[in-house]
């Protein structure tokens, strides 16, 4: 654990809390991609298979439970909540996310640390998380106008991975034999996908205007 890892975890947690606040306080999921949220459920379930078999720390276990349960709760609200589900932008959320699942699975079978079920699924979760935000970004570009809470959710979600890159750099120089090339490459790709969004987010913040993305 280091300051960059902790900051990344807290930023990730904050992004989830912002999204839950939007859904529960406003009873709307407008501007949120259900497909991205379903991909995150798959990411967390496949990454944290060791939840009941490997104990690292109370902090580690609690964070795993929080991310799994919150992602499932978000998908449930968007699919089953009588009020929230009516506000889902189904006509805008048409990204073929199954392609991302299939591509990530193929990469996991080819590039992994060890050819075991757990390690292949861990690699799959890393690759899938790198691109899981794509349906969300496409939806926002199609809707163009982005409400404040949705904009903050996406911003903090992107900031979390950027902080993790700093965590990896710190660990590389302070820990002997530290190497996680799968996470490094996927993390760089994931952060790069947010660059365009970060730019327009900064412009809207600088000009004190509502966030708008180009079509």
| Integer-rounded radius of gyration | 17 Å
* Principal-axes shape call: globular
Alpha carbon gap, first and last residue: 41 Å
The main sheet comes to:
none
Show unreliable segments.
none
Query: What is the number of helical segments per DSSP (H or I, 4+ residues)?
Result: 9
Describe, in short, the structure shown.
By secondary structure, the protein is mainly α.
Task: Please characterize this protein's 3D structure.
It is built from nine helices and no strands. The mean pLDDT is 93. It has 215 residues and is mainly α. Helix 2 (34-47) runs antiparallel to helix 3 (58-80), helix 2 runs antiparallel to helix 5 and helix 4 (97-110) crosses helix 5 (117-131). It is 71% helix and 0% strand.
Topology:
Blueprint: H1 3-26, H2 34-47, H3 58-80, H4 97-110, H5 117-131, H6 134-143, H7 148-174, H8 181-193, H9 195-206
Which characteristics define this entry?
215 residues, mainly alpha, globular
């Amino acid at each position: 654990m280091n300051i960059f890892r902790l900051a990344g975890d807290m930023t990730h947690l904050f992004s989830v809390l912002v999204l839950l606040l939007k859904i529960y306080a406003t009873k709307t999921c407008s501007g949120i991609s259900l497909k991205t949220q379903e991909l995150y459920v798959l990411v967390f379930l496949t990454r944290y298979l060791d939840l009941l078999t490997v104990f690292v720390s109370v902090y580690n276990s609690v964070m795993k439970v929080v991310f799994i349960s919150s992602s499932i709760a978000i998908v449930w609200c968007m699919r089953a909540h009588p009020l929230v589900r009516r506000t889902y932008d189904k006509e805008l959320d048409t990204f073929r996310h199954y392609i991302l699942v299939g591509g990530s699975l193929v990469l996991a079978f080819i590039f992994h640390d060890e050819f075991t079920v757990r390690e292949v699924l861990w690699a799959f979760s890393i690759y899938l998380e790198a691109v899981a935000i794509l349906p969300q970004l496409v939806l926002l570009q199609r809707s163009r106008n982005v409400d404040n809470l949705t904009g903050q959710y996406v911003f903090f979600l992107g900031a979390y991975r950027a902080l993790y890159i700093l965590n990896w750099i710190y660990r590389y120089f302070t820990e002997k034999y530290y190497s996680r090339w799968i996470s490094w490459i996927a993390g760089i790709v994931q952060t790069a996908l947010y660059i365009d969004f970060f730019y327009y987010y900064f412009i809207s913040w600088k000009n004190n205007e509502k966030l708008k993305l180009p079509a």
